Amino acid sequence: MAKGKRQNPIKGLFCGIVAGAVASAAMDQYWNLVGNIPGDRPEQKPKKGDNQQKDEPSTQIIADKVSKAVSGKEVPKKDKAAAGVGVHYLTGVTFGALFGIVAALRPRTGLFAGLFYGVLIWLFLDEMMLRALNIAPDPRKVPAEKHVEALGAHLVYGSATAIVAKLLLR
């Protein structure tokens, strides 16, 4: 590929899907390194005392909501952990696909853009959207180091997405 040449966005989509899956796995490894269990991070727990939510990771709550909308039933208890992991990876490949499309159309999109993308996902999805949907706790009740850990996870995700997408787009 010639430097700076735009590519087919469909190729970018598929490269981004792979990149998002790899980046989601890298994010899980980050959580293992900081001592948390993937899919059960304290900053994503629902608010205590909220009668409408359960004390489960946000990914499992989202899986329940989707399952209920599709089948009318929540995810069976024995399948909740797997469903939560599925939501995590589906989210990762979706955001990876979006990055891949942009990287195909804007060839100079690189590591800095990936880091910025990770920050945006952390800010808007993790810090704002989950709280707005009453799935995660009030950010003021979460210790500052947990916010920093979550930001670190999303920086890992964004950088891994950018690196893998750019390698695949070569």
Give the topology.
Elements: H1 9-33, H2 58-71, H3 80-105, H4 111-132, H5 144-169
What can you see in these coordinates?
- The protein contains 5 helices and no strands.
- The chain is an all-alpha fold.
- Helices cover 66% and strands 0% of the residues.
- The chain starts with 8 loop residues before the first helix and ends with a helix.
- It is globular, with a radius of gyration of 17 Å.
The separation of the N and C termini measures: 6 Å
Q: Structural class per helix/strand content?
A: mainly alpha
Mean pLDDT score: 87
Tally of helical runs: 5
Biggest sheet statistics: none
Q: Percent range for helical residues? A: 55-70%
| Radius of gyration over all CA atoms, rounded | 17 Å
* Sequence of secondary-structure elements: HHHHH
The unreliable regions are: none
- Tertiary shape: globular
> What share of the residues does DSSP label as strand, in percent?
under 5%
Number of E-state strands: 0
